[in-house]
Amino acid sequence: MKPDNRFLDQPKHFWANVRLVSEQIGYTVRGTGRVRLPALAEVVSALRTLGLDTGHLVGGGGKPTTLGRALLRYFSYRAQVLNEYVQPRLMTAEQARRQLEKLQMIPNASGCPIPMNKQKGEKRAPAYLTGIVNILIHANAEGLPCDYDPRRLTTVTGDGAPLRTLARRVDGAFPGAINPVAVWEIKEYYYTTTFGSRVADGIYESLLDGMELEELREHESVEVRHYLVVDGRYTWWECGRSYLCRIVDMLHMGYVDEVLFGSEVIRELPRIVKTWVRLVRERERSGPISRRRG
To answer: Measuring CA to CA, which residue among 129, 139, 140 is closest to residue 202?
Structure first.
C-alpha cells in the first residue's frame, strides 16, 4: 500500500493531533471488529477533556477549520482503508503456507533462501512470509545480489567512508547492507495468541529506522527506500488493530515508503523490486556516493 498523496507532507502538529485524539478516543470500536471513525464532536471532546484548546480545529459556528477538515478526512481514510482494504488481505498461517508453496514451484525460485520460523514443536515450519518475500525478490532481481538476512548494521558511505550507520539491523537489504537502495522489515506473527510488547516493539523499531533514514535524506541528500511487510490475521486484526492504525500513520508521516499487508505482497513486490533494480543500474552509471561538502 502506498500513501495517499492528500496526507503526505502534513506538518508535525497534524500528526500530534492524530496521535493524541486516537489515543484519547480509542483506535477501535470495541465489540465490532472495526477501526473507529471519530466524529468532530468526539475530537473536540477528547481535547477538552485533556484541558487543551480546540480553536485550531473548530472555528466560528462550530465548523471545522482547514486543519480540522484535514484531520477528519484522514480519520475517515484510515478507517476505510483498514476496514475494507487491509483486513481482507491479512492471511492465516494456512493461507500463507499455500501461497509459499505455489511460489516455490516457479522456475526462478530455485536457490532462494527459505528460513525456518522460531517456533517449536508442531508449529515449527518455514517462515512463510519471509519465504514469500525472498522468492519474489530473487525472481525479479535480474541477477543482482541481495542480502536476505543482514548480520550487520546498515551503513551508507560517502567518499568510501561511513556517512551514516543505522542503530539496528534490518531484515533485508538490496543489494546489500552497505549502501543499499532499499531496506525492509518483515513482521509475520501467525502463531502469536496475544498482541504482546514484542510485537509492539517491532513497530517502534521500524519507526526508528524511518526517522534515521529521514535524517539521512534531509541532511545528506541520500535516499534509501524503506518498506514494511506485515501479516498474521489473528495477531494484527483481532488483537492489534490499533497498531495497524499506527502503521498507516507512519506511512503517511513519510517514515515508510510502502507497507505490504498480507497477500498484497504477491502483487506489489515484483513491481517494487523492478524499481530497486533500476536504482542500482542508475547508481552503477553515476558512480559511488560522494560526501556533501560545504
So the answer is: 129
- Look at residue 1 in the predicted model and tell me its pLDDT: 96
3-state secondary structure of 262: coil
Kindly state the DSSP code that residue 82 receives in the 8-state scheme. I
The residues that bridge with 34 in the sheet, in sequence order, are 29
What residues does 177 pair with on adjacent strands? Answer: none
Task: Give dist(CA 181, CA 171) in Å, integer.
Answer: 14
* Rounded Cα–Cα distance for residues 92 and 232 (Å): 6
Nearest residue to 189 via CA among 178, 180, 201? 201
Model confidence over 165-191: pLDDT tens digits?
999 999 999 999 999 999 999 999 998
**189 phi and psi, to 5 degrees?**
-135, 75
Contact 87, 237 (CB under 8 A): yes
Please name the residues in contact with 215: beta carbons below 8 A apart, sequence gap of 6 or more: 164
Q: Quote the crossing angle between the two packed helices 12-25 and 40-49, to the nearest 10°.
A: 90
Of 88, 113, 145, the domain-final residue: 88
Domain co-membership, 149 together with 75: no
Instruction: Print the domain residue range for 214.
Output: 90-286
Q: What is the DSSP string of 115-155?
A: -B-S--GGG--B-HHHHHHHHHHHHHSTT---BSS--S--E
122 Cβ neighbours under 8 A, 6+ residues apart: none
Q: Are residues 163 and 281 in the same domain?
A: yes
pTM over 0.90: yes
Is 9 a domain residue? yes
Residue ranges of the chain with per-residue pLDDT less than 50 = 293-294
174 vs 155: CA distance, rounded Å: 12
Which of 23, 58, 88 represents a domain boundary (last residue)?
A: 88
Q: Beta-carbon neighbour count of residue 94 at 10 Å?
A: 10
Do 228 and 256 meet the contact criterion of CB atoms below 8 Å apart? yes
